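ugh ok fine here u go
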Amino acid sequence: MSVSPPIAKAPLAYQPGDVIAGKYELGAPLGSGGMGAVFRARNTVIDMPVALKLIRADLDRDQFSGRLLQEARAAAKLAHPAIVRVFDVGQTAVGDPFIVMELLEGETLSELVEREGRLSCERAVQLLLPIADALSMAHAKGFVHRDVKPDNVFICRSTEGQVQPKLVDFGIVKQDDYSGEPQTQAGLVVGSPDYMSPEQARGQANIDSRSDLWSFCVVVYEAVTGHPPFEADNYNALMRLIVEAEPATLSDVGAADDALSAIIARGMRKAPAERWPSLGQLGKALATWLLDQGIGEDACGASLEARWLSRSTDPTGARLSSSLPPKFGPEPLSGVRDAQGFGTAPTVVSRSAATPHSLSRTKGRSLTPRRRVWVALTIGVVAACSGILAYVALRSKPASSEAFTAGAPNLGASPAPAMTREPTVPVAAPVPAAPSVAPVIAERAPTPEPLRSSSHKPRILVPPAPAAAPEPASREGASSGASDLLSPY
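structure:
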């Protein structure tokens, strides 16, 4: 059997109905130990139920007042669903230290195992994974609990039946280079004997997170077997077993399969360096084992995939595939890698977010088509002008009216209709105004129109030729050269 030194208890100086610090009315006691007692209480100012821990009056007030203050500070820094919340800390009217915590409804893990017997492996791991998560966070912030045991794992149950395991009693927590030497029970070394790591049993000063990892595995071991891995008739013999002996594995005692047995055995190796690197890695191994059993959630209903497995794929915990930049959106900031290679999940991008960059790209691409339009229009205008000039040049040569009549369309014997408007310059198609084209059109002579003659014979009257005869040839050449300069080819 496991052995712990006896605890000397003294009568409590406080009773139900007492008011502490002017606002905490004590109710029924919830438990007592070597340091003092925990009462159900009520904050009369805000009418909230709480738990209030009082230190025994015969103990060193200064020592344990410092311990309670340390517990309050540690719990305040470790905000986690699986860590009990601390609301207040202070002293009574006579100077006794107290701490006010959230009131937990349920039972400790040790009480659960005593009441129901050993737990199934699946249920035990489900209950303890939230505790592993809480310890992992505490270790990441530099805290070592140093007293992980079934009595400090409280299984809370809500009125709706929801379960939330919580880690309690951070009174002997160690943070970084904490130089004090607080104790779990008066007159004892740090920690509870049955759950001490080999380094704790040897009295080593530098205890780190790997000691909590050992104790956590001992708690799992006891939950599925109903007893701790080491049992002895006295305290010294127990310490020697912890330091020197190898415990029977879970598979040896028929409590678990080989996979779970190997996970827990690795966490209970004598040398800290041979254990799991962290409680996070141990928790991941336990979550993977649960998934292999067809279980996807812990006791709180949290997804094992989301909590333990997907988190390890990216150190930041971010889902990179859900934050891909839009294809035509703003360019990544300097020093940020292109995220397109990190995932394939679709990304929904709002139109407003992509509009500025899209417009800038569209504007850049539209320069070439617009240039081509102007070139085409210029060529068309030049061709039209060339035709007019050629026509004028031909009409400037002497010829009979019959020659022109033969080449003109047959309008029939009936006289042409009388004209009711002045001659105008015909335009083949509407052309947008352009500074480089308008002067060319303005310099051309108006197109002649047929007029009615006295002999009713259709004739075409040609206006006088331009004053400068060489101008048509030079104009055509200039227009052709301009066309070559504007062409992108």
